Amino acid sequence: MIKKIKNRKIKLIGITGKMGSGKSLFSSFFKKKGIPVYYSDKRGKVLMNKIEIIKQNIIKYFGKNSYQKNKINKTHLSKIVFQNSMALKLLCHIVHPWMLLDFKQWMSSIIKKKLFM
Asked: pTM here?
């Protein structure tokens, strides 16, 4: 996806890989160069703690122990989803639509910032 803004191109680069493959380290090089980085893992956790419908669905399908003191219980949820591929798919189905919306809003804010630079 390349969008032209005032004779400048914005390039969207996706970095993928398994856990521990160095995605965050690689992304940090971009960040150090002043290139905006959307950290999907971090944003996913924020959204799971912030958006009520996500919380309700996680509790509905994964139990009340999924949250402790109104924060996502990563230990509880990880035990379930990393042992059951269907549970992982369900969690992705609950969270990913909201992450896509969040990403689009983030991209829009980046584009607006570039317009006024």
From this structure: 0.81
